[in-house]
């Protein structure tokens, strides 16, 4: 599923690089039409929604549906689930010690929607995207609303930092916010950390790790509020996302196995390989990309003149618009007496190739 969505994103990016745009509704329709028949009920549910769904929500729901279908198939064929984070069996009939959860019988599997906690009103049963107070900027939770312990514990740590761990067989996080799909963990096992002590597991599920150009799936993600760091299982990350990681003394490179494109470069600090991720603060998410590419706003806005760029920069100081660079495309397009550059494009019918002058 991750590869399927990455292929669609690549197609949309190619269309955008050609100077055209694709509506979000068209992208969602294209994604749904390409799903196999086993997703028929999922497609019906999405198409009959009263309010349009965003691409981010659709991405998370598709990954969740993929996991559910795989789980149903494994139960049908009576194949047990693989062992999870740091899990080891001490013998038949004996208790297992730490490092992972038990496989729950079907009758004991919790409802994944029952543990969803809204990040706006802190109530269970719905996500923030469907909260009644999402449009009310002045809304604050009532004083008697008790924030979950997992969230309170996560606020005392830098939950945006992730570290690669070659010894972990599943992903571990200290923040409930990092789980996009979750369920309360009902087993008795815990996670054995480096000093030999055992910490409990509060929730389990899946998550998404945002990179500048892609989102990585984090399956088998376990939430333990007592952990000090967020840990990524290297083996699980590579298997779920069809990527490779190259390490050197100064850092690491994360590459796509199909295209060999470098998706991310990270440093090595004090022997730890930290994974740099994009900010999860939605109020600044749009600006983070603008800071990375100074000259991109001139291209995004259709090559406007400097007076328009000055006006935009004065209205919104968060936009890092570089007003000193000179656009080669604008200069060449105004030189009408220059010869056209040699083109390899050949068309046989009318309107097969259209040149647009903005």
UniProtKB/TrEMBL annotation:
Pfam families membership: gag_pre-integrs, Pol_BBD, Retrotran_gag_2
Biased composition (Basic residues): 91-100
InterPro entries in UniProt: GAG-pre-integrase_dom, PolX-like_BBD
Residues in GAG-pre-integrase domain copies: 271-334
Record's signal peptide: none
Domain Retrovirus-related Pol polyprotein from transposon TNT 1-94-like beta-barrel residue range list: 162-240
Record region (Disordered): 91-112
Listed name of the protein: Retrovirus-related Pol polyprotein from transposon TNT 1-94
Organism the protein comes from: Dendrobium nobile (Orchid)
């Amino acid at each position: 599923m991750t590869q399927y969505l990455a292929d669609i994103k690549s197609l949309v990016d190619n269309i955008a690089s050609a100077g055209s745009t694709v509506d979000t509704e068209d992208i969602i329709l294209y994604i749904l039409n390409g799903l196999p028949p086993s997703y028929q009920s999922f497609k019906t549910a999405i198409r009959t929604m009263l309010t349009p769904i965003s691409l981010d929500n659709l991405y998370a729901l598709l990954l969740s549906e993929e996991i559910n279908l795989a789980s149903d198939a494994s139960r049908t064929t009576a194949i047990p689930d693989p062992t999870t984070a740091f899990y080891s069996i001490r013998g038949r009939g004996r208790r297992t010690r730490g490092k992972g959860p038990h496989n729950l019988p079907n009758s004991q599997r919790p409802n994944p929607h029952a543990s969803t906690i809204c990040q706006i009103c802190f109530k269970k049963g719905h996500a923030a995207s469907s909260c009644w107070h999402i449009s009310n900027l002045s809304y604050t939770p009532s004083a008697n609303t008790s924030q979950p312990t997992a969230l309170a514990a996560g606020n005392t740590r830098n939950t945006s930092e992730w570290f690669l761990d070659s010894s972990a067989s599943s992903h571990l996080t200290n923040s409930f916010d990092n789980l996009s799909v979750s369920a309360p963990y009902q087993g008795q096992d815990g996670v054995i950390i480096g000093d030999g002590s055992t910490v409990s597991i509060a929730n389990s599920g899946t998550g998404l790790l945002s990179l500048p150009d892609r989102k990585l799936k984090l399956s088998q993600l376990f939430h333990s509020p007592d952990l000090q760091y967020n840990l990524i299982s290297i083996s699980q990350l590579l298997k779920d996302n069809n990527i490779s990681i190259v390490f050197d003394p100064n850092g690491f490179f994360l590459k796509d196995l199909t295209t060999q494109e470098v998706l991310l470069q990270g440093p090595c600090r004090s022997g730890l390989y930290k994974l740099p991720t994009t900010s999860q603060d939605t109020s600044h998410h749009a600006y983070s990309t603008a800071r990375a590419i100074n000259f991109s706003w001139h291209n995004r806005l259709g090559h406007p003149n400097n007076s328009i760029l000055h006006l935009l920069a004065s209205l919104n100081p968060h936009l890092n618009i570089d007003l000193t660079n000179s656009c080669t495309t604008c200069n060449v397009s105004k030189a009408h007496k220059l010869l056209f550059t040699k083109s390899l494009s050949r068309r046989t019918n009318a309107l097969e190739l259209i040149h647009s002058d903005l």
